[in-house]
Design goal:
Layout lengths: L1 H21 L8 E4 L5 E6 L5 E6 L12 E8 L2 E10 L2 E4 L9 E8 L7 E7 L20
Antiparallel strand pairs: 1-2, 2-3, 3-6, 4-5, 4-7, 5-6, 7-8
The structure holds zinc ion (ZN).
Length: 145
């Protein structure tokens, strides 16, 4: 009986740590997006409500964009609005702020190369702060959110 309980306990711990590996906060408190192309992108909303995408290479070192590109679609109740991005030192920033009226759904379209298929990331843009992890809800890393 004791052995069985220990076994269950270790299983639970195993699951928890696996989940923690998947749900990590971005270095700037944003949402990490894995494009499966040898780099990670982090979606961050700036205090001025611009959408920013940071790129990270090995060991989470910031990298400059090369052939990647980003586009964002804001799915507002009144219709969709498209945001364009410009290159910055280690990623991209939207040329216009995100529209007011959150929460709403955004689709971030990340291309690794002009000719490659885009990766679409659907994010619920909720800018309220989560009471548990203290991140904004769009970047919340709590289990079950
Ligand atoms: Zn949270």
């Amino acid at each position: 009986m004791k052995t069985l309980l220990l076994f269950i306990a270790s299983l639970t711990i195993g699951t928890a740590s696996l989940f923690a590996d998947e749900e990590k906060a971005g270095p700037q408190g944003g949402r990490l997006l894995d494009s499966s192309a040898g780099f990670l992108a982090e979606f961050v909303v700036t205090p001025e409500h611009f959408a920013k995408v940071n790129l990270y290479g090995e060991q989470m070192k910031p990298i400059a964009p090369t052939e990647q590109s980003v586009m964002l679609t804001a799915e507002l109740p009144g219709g969709v609005q498209i945001l364009e991005f410009k290159n910055i030192e280690n990623g991209f920033i939207s040329t216009t702020p995100l529209p007011d009226g959150e929460p709403y759904r955004v689709v971030l379209r990340l291309r690794n190369h002009p000719d490659s298929r885009p990766h679409n990331f659907r994010i619920d843009l909720n800018l309220t702060t989560c009471g548990e992890c203290q991140l904004q809800e769009y970047a919340c890393i709590c289990e079950g959110h």
